[in-house]
Amino acid sequence: MSTPPLGRRGFLQGALGIGALAATGSLAACAPGGTATQPSKLAAPSASTSAAKGEITIWNRSGDLFKVFDAAIAKFRAAYPNVKVNHQAVDIDAKLANTLISGTDVPDGSFWDDAKIGGQAEHLFDLTDLIAPYKDQTSPYKLSVNTVDGKIYGVPWDLDPGLLWYREDILDSAGVDPASLATYDDLITAARTVKEKDPETRPIHLEKTPFLSQLWLEMLAGQQGTSLTDAQGKLRLDSEEYRRIFTWIQTAVKDDLVTHAPYLEPADVKSLDDGRQVFVPWAIWWSFAPQQLLKATKGKWRAAPLPAWTPGGARSGAMGGSSFVIPAKAKNPELAWLLYEFLCFKEPGYTAVYGPNDVYPGGLSTSIPSYIPAADPAKPLFQPIEALGGQDLWKVAVEAGATIPAATPIPWWWAQSVDYLGNNMQRLMEGKMSPDQVISESAEKIQRNLIDRS
Amino acid sequence: MRSTRLSPYLFIAPFFVVFAAFGIYPLIYALQLSFMRWRGAGAARWVGVDNYLYLLTSPDFWASLGNSAVMWVLIVPLQVVAGLGGAVLLANARLRLRGFFRVAFIAPFVTPLVAMAQVWIVVFDQDYGLINYLLNLAGLPDVAWLTSTTWSKPTLALLFLWKTTGFAIIILLAGLQAVPGGVYEAAALDGASRARQFWSITVPLVRRSMAFLVVIQTLAVFQMFAEPYVVTQGGPYGSTTTAGLYLYNHITASDLGTGAANSFLLVLLVFGLSLVSVRLLRPKDEVS
Q: Per the CB < 8 Å rule, is A4 touching B5?
């Protein structure tokens, strides 16, 4: 008779013992988060340009912009021949936060939305000292959204100023001078004039997707120097500035002056092309529409600074934008900094991205640099745009961008707040909510579900 | 001697090691996480049952469960009926083109869901979709299939039905083919009509398969994620934010503790629903 293996009871006891060990020892060792750590501060690289040596992995978005950065990185390598750049197209929104949290296969640097940076600052290098020499010459807005507790965590990249896109031919025939659109009240008056001439028009675009409508709202709020939260994270939705925006929207809706359509989806494109939409207050990246999407009205659109909310107020706000981050667990953070310094603050770098290139023969015209010396109205990086009737969009955009006030870091829960504020904005645009209801209901839910749980 | 005693355990050890690493450990880790507040950065804070209490008192959490419950009502009963009909049809040896129909019914099930969801977006587009085009041809007005709170859930339910009814047919067909042919012959000799045979033989004898189908589809409906994620992103106004999507929203917002608590609440709910389904659909002989 063979010796029986371990008895059933012995086996179960052993298994339970191992299980208990796993549940206590290993879990205690791997408790989420562990202890809080202070972000590391990245110092300036000590090596000279020619001595900088090594390999870095850089994450970027896929698509045309990746190709543009590829060409710019080739220029960087000409300046730093001993630095090899492993440039990868990655679904950053899906992967970067998880990678930072897990700490595995972390890139040396990555492109990232400004809205995401504040929430993950602890996983990023503090770049305050490195950016210090450029700080006074960088857009205050971009610096402020990259700053958490006085420390800068992102290398400010693009600035996306809001502009007023309008149909020049329709305004001409309605006798409206674009230069007269100095305030949002002027815009309502002009829309009424256009509609009187052609009752079929719904002149002003209002966004139908909750996320983009809230991003748009933040542009209009930022124009007035405010944002959803203050620097301490306190909600400030219940304010004169937000109430002013919501009341303006309500007026435009009540007067039947709006086309409520989702951003550049077929229904939107159709009403843009058939002349029902005349005014699109939107970010500079709307320039993509007349260049790529619109057919019948290509060449008839122009850009102007946004109207101001109060006479003499700022003529633009930012809508979106991205920066570069260097993860705290990067293997070669100094070399990543050299790359980003080259792209953002050195003329050959930012010129390679924004200037004429193989991908965009006229230059990249969907944003402008946030580094002020690069955004000189007299020294355009991208060329006048034929689809805008040859207008010098560069000059309009950089002059508008220069007026954008400083802001505060974007709270980590911003995207989640769309379920409340973005949705309620849609209700306002559909005439189902008043400005006060939008403010009170959104504020109550954001406070309860997002802020009090932080 | 000792090595002889241990060797069987060493042979089966790899499975247990892998299972412990990728099954047990993440489960315990997630359970621990559900009692903490952690956003992926900084120290995790022990909050006891706070995440559970938050969810159980959150109108959004209950709304997501309500959305899933409505989806269940729209999908599961209809799918059981349609699946049984399809299975009976395919089990009929005299059906012409039986092979073609089998492939046709199963094709949506093996087609990638995201691709089908994209097709749904195009077909049900309010302004340019095929369905509204056909409605217009018939003199009917446009319907906001994906952008109104009234129609968004039925439209997504239809996608789910289209995608998974082939699976239901397979399950019920397998159950149907296990019914001995002699039972039908005996019933026919006793003068039972086709309808009588269906209600008195087919339905009772495939009851176990139906119970299995209901449990599996209940699990699937309450975990439904890709359909609303791709087609409606949970909108309009959260009307298609299913329990699965609501859970995902916590995770993507790095609200990991709440997401973990949500997972366990969902597990409990689905477990309870499955038990109820099994009890309701178990054959009468088992009940006694």
A: yes
| B238 interaction partners in chain A (CB closer than 8 Å) | 419, 423
Return the CA Rg of chain B: 24
Residues of A with CB under 8 A from a CB of B: 2-6, 11, 19, 22-23, 26-27, 30-36, 97, 100-101, 119-123, 210, 266-267, 270, 412-413, 415-416, 419, 423, 426-427, 449, 453
Separation in Å, CA A97 to CA A113, A275, B9, B212, B217: 11, 43, 40, 39, 33
pLDDT of B147-177, one tens digit each? 999 999 999 999 999 999 999 999 999 999 8
Say how far apart CA A24 and CA A29 lie, in whole Å.
8
Place of tokens 């090596």: A47
User: What would the DSSP string read from start to end of B11-60?
Assistant: HHHHHHHHHIIIIIHHHHHHHHHTTEE--SSS--EE-TTHHHHHHHT-HH
Contact B128 A266 (CB under 8 A): yes
Q: B256, A32: Cβ pair inside 8 Å?
A: yes
Tokens for B186, please give them: 């005996």
CATH H superfamily, domain A54-160+320-375 = Periplasmic binding protein-like II (3.40.190.10)
Burial category of A118 from C-beta neighbours within 10 Å (exposed 0-12, middle 13-18, buried 19 and up): buried
Residues facing residue A167 across a β-bridge: A301
pLDDT in tens, A282-308: 999 999 999 999 999 999 999 999 999
Across the interface, of B41, B54, B237, the residue whose CB is closest to A453 is: B54
A104 secondary structure, DSSP code: S
Closest by Cβ to A419, choosing from B39, B238, B256: B238
pLDDT band at A396 (very low <50, low <70, confident <90, very high): very high
Q: Which CATH number fits domain A162-319+399-451: 3.30.420.40, 3.40.109.10, 3.40.190.10, 3.30.1330.40?
A: 3.40.190.10
